[in-house]
Design a protein that fits this description.
The structure holds 2 protein chains of 2 kinds.
Chain A (H helix, E strand, L loop, with lengths): L1 E5 L2 E5 L5 H7 L23 E6 L2 E6 L10 E3 L3 H17 L4 H9 L19 H10 L5 E3 L6 E3 L13 H5 L7 E3 L3 E4 L4 E7 L6 E4 H11 L10 H4 L1
Parallel strand pairs in A: 1-5
Antiparallel strand pairs in A: 1-2, 3-4, 3-5, 6-7, 8-9, 9-10, 10-11
Chain B lengths: L28 H13 L3 E5 L3 H6 L11 E3 L5 H17 L9 E7 H6 L2 H10 L4 E6 L39 H6 L5 E5 L4 H13 L4 E6 L3 H4 L6 H10 L6 E4 L2 E4 L10 H4 L10 H25 L3
Parallel strand pairs in B: 1-2, 1-3, 3-4, 4-6, 5-6
Antiparallel strand pairs in B: 5-7, 7-8
The chains are: A alpha+beta, B alpha/beta.
């Protein structure tokens, strides 16, 4: 265990872990958007900025990607940090003005309206959906493409042919910009423009998951051929 | 939300705010509901818990299962204390004695603490418009004191104070519709949930906590001990309660009804009764009587959804 302090309070973190999860576990509040326990940290949203003092030198860094070290002092709520976070939220809100998560964070930090030119984007490019798709689902259906201000998140070549429509990205998106629609016949992930036909349960006749997804799971977990013919309710 | 169950389940927070080692009975769905709610709310929450099963099993002195601040109050005043906590936080933040930040206030009570003993406290708190979330974990009787009937016990259920016998067929009154009472206060968010639908429950808790103003969530918690059912059937019983239309899952957002799990065709209520000992004395006529009422109530709910345009 590595000992260091956060806001003057002594904490312990496991070797190899980063500052943000240790801080959250110990009840310190650090706002964050692109961080998730289950996937590797990426440091995209920069909202989890903290000041770290090490060897007499103090600098600002994203806590989600900063590894814990013996004897460092972390400050989560200094004037400098607050100012930087306010600026980041203001810029994010100017990019995506109608996202509720951002509006809420902004109002907590005392921003009513960003002073920058408003744009009509929905995605904040935090890349969390891509990491979840790669590391948790393993489908690798989406990734960043283009560069600079044209950067976008989506399926490669805008062709979502490996997306299994599992909805993990829908669940994890911090600003709720990925939506899923479902009817009896098909399921659509609206943002990736992926529509897949649904499979019906052999016993009860209710549709329960897309064909393609079930094939993917069967292959991945090496299940017997007819294992996923009935829905989880009827399998019980 | 409920259809995301394959991979989204891996993305639910691993930290437990309602920890292991509590003394709930085997198959207790109430403990499950509280655990899921804890996951949805995260760390910055103050829990106010009325007397009831959840208080008894989670905090036998000197232990506790709670990893968040937790206050135990009397049977009747969870909502009143929660309003006090909320006002206190507001005052402290206004005076600068503590940093401005969002702290959720959660009031937790059972069906007795909500619909019998605590009903004036909750009605007052909802009417005053405090910014808090009230979760009622409804196991349909006073289970921890020995299965006495409450106003949330459904018609026909046999309990120790409404025993089924030659004279009465168990509970002689219909279940009090507490969610409708909360909705009648015109608060911003009312919902019903069931731990058999975990994502739906977590989503509703999150929504309820974020709303400005009071929110009320009525959770059906299957109780194997009191319902005389097998502990391994708790999840299935929850699903059956929803699928038969006995406990429909819906939300009321700013007065607009929206059914969360819409069922084109309801299952017969008998499927639900068959698995529970407390209903085993029911005769065909009684089941028909219940079926008629369940169908009527479900139709009423659908009509409310159509009329308020929450679809």
């Amino acid at each position: 265990m590595i000992e260091f302090t956060i806001d003057g309070v002594g904490v312990e973190g496991e070797e190899g872990s980063n500052v943000l999860p240790v801080a959250l576990e110990n009840g310190f509040e650090i706002p964050h958007l692109c961080y998730h326990d289950e996937v590797s940290p990426y440091g995209a949203c920069r909202l989890c900025l903290v000041e770290v003092e090490r060897g007499g030198r103090r600098r600002m860094t994203a806590s989600c990607t900063y590894p814990v070290q013996e004897g460092i002092q972390v400050f989560t709520d200094t004037e400098k940090v607050r100012k930087a976070r306010r600026m980041i939220i203001e810029l994010l809100l100017a990019r995506c003005p109608d996202r509720e998560t951002l509006q809420e964070l902004a109002s907590q930090m005392g921003i009513e309206k960003p002073r920058f030119e408003l744009r009509e984007e929905e995605c904040i490019l935090c890349g969390l959906c891509e990491r979840v798709c790669r590391e948790v689902v393993g489908a690798n259906a989406i990734s960043f493409f283009s560069r600079g201000h044209k950067r976008e998140m989506g399926p490669p070549f805008r062709d979502p042919k490996v997306c299994i429509a599992c909805g993990a990205c829908v669940y994890v998106c911090p600003v709720d910009c990925i939506k899923m629609e479902e009817t009896k016949e098909e399921r659509t992930i609206v943002r990736w423009e992926r529509t897949l036909p649904m499979k019906k349960c052999k016993t009860c006749g209710q549709s329960f998951a897309p064909w393609f997804q079930l094939e993917y799971i069967k292959e991945k977990v090496k299940l017997p051929k007819d294992f996923l013919d009935v829905c989880p309710d009827c399998r019980g | 939300m409920e259809k995301l169950n394959v991979y989204a389940a891996k993305l639910v927070p691993k930290n437990e705010n309602f920890g292991q080692g509590h003394r709930a009975c085997q198959g207790c769905a109430e403990a499950l509901a509280v655990r899921l709610a804890g996951k949805a709310l995260g760390k910055s929450v103050i829990t106010v818990s009325a007397t009831g099963c959840m208080e008894v099993v989670s905090t036998p002195f000197p232990y506790t299962s709670w990893n968040v601040p937790w206050i135990h109050v009397a049977f009747e005043n969870a909502a009143a204390v929660a309003s006090g906590v909320e006002s206190g936080l507001k005052a402290l933040m206004r005076k600068g004695r503590m940093p401005q930040r969002k702290i959720f206030v959660l009031a937790l009570a059972g069906d007795g603490g909500t619909s019998d003993i605590g009903v004036q406290a909750i009605s007052g708190a909802l009417e005053r418009g405090h910014d808090f979330l009230y979760i009622c974990t409804d196991n349909e009787a006073y289970m921890n004191t020995g299965i006495q009937r409450s106003s949330a016990t459904p018609w026909g259920a046999s309990t120790t104070t409404s025993p089924a016998g030659k004279v009465i067929p168990g509970q002689a009154t219909w279940k009090k519709n507490m969610a409708a009472i909360a909705a009648a206060h015109d608060i911003p968010y009312v919902a019903t949930a069931c731990p058999s639908y975990p994502f739906d429950l977590m989503e509703k808790v999150k929504k309820g906590a974020r709303v400005h103003g009071p929110a009320y969530i009525h959770v059906l918690a299957v109780c194997p001990t009191g319902w005389r059912s097998a502990p391994d059937l708790s999840i299935r019983l929850g699903r059956l309660a929803v699928e038969t239309g006995i406990f429909p899952l819906y939300e009321v957002i700013d007065g607009k009804y929206k059914i969360s799990i819409d069922l084109p065709k309801l299952r017969p209520v008998e499927d639900y009764f068959r698995l529970q000992g407390r209903f085993r004395h029911l005769t065909k006529d009684m089941i028909e009587k219940i079926q008629e009422r369940v169908t009527r109530e479900y139709e009423k709910l659908k009509m409310q959804e159509r009329m308020t345009g929450g679809e």
